[in-house]
Amino acid sequence: PGYYGKSCTDACHLNPCENEAQCHRKPSSSHGYVCDCGDNHFGQYCQHRSDHQCPRGWWGSPTCGPCDCDTDKGFDPNCNKTSGHCHCKEFHYHPRGSDTCLPCDCYPVGSFSRSCDAETGQCQCRPGVIGRQCNACDNPFAEVTNSGCEVIYDGCPKTITQGIWWPRTKFNLCGGILPQRLCRWVHLDSSSFESPPLDGTAQIGHTPSSVQVQPSDTVM
User: Cα–Cα 20 to 30 A to 21, which of 73, 158, 175, 178?
Assistant: First the structure.
């Protein structure tokens, strides 16, 4: 449920909810989605105006009850005024089978907005940008920019590896790097980078098959 037509269009993309209500995917519901009515409307499509309004954090009619949404797990304290259904906070997503909402954490340079898919967490990437958070490029010599992925010809591109951002740096020899800084080797034969181990054992040295390097931020 929740998908319609030959192309299996997501029901929420068809905007079935009325009165500016927000549609949220919910595979366990009869229609595969629910409409978050807000404070002034109720009904499956939020088509009815509510004369009796529950305060924020409460739901029901004619008697109001607490929403009981777990904010420590990323849920919004306010729930659906008709069903009591809890939904994620803004800029969070709810993986299928999980009881927790996770932050989208979209990379602002590589994505169009801070919002992501309500179930997969996939951010809306700019052209050529990949990754759930839109923080990577297919080409190892390209970096993410406001216009998409851009190839860097005179140095190593800014990129993220093992959770660490390496800044864009012009080509240089590893021997000239300060001892407090790590570097990456550029393998010209395989068109790839070799990052140093990040467990404190990294040493600056020379590799015959590699000729150029990029320093990272200072390791404290």
Answer: 73
Range in 21-30, 105-114, 122-131, 201-210 the model is least confident about: 201-210
pTM assigned to the model: 0.58
* C-alpha to C-alpha distance for 91 and 33, rounded to whole angstroms: 18
Q: Provide the total of helices (H) and of strands (E) in the chain, helices listed first.
A: 0, 23
Beta carbons within 10 angstroms of residue 217's beta carbon: 11
User: Which domains, ranges and CATH numbers included, belong to the chain?
Assistant: 3-49 (2.10.25.10), 58-89 (no CATH), 102-161 (2.10.25.10)
How far is residue 50's CA from residue 62's CA, in Å, rounded to a whole number?
10
Give Cβ neighbours of residue 151 (< 8 Å, ≥ 6 apart). Answer: 139, 141, 142, 157
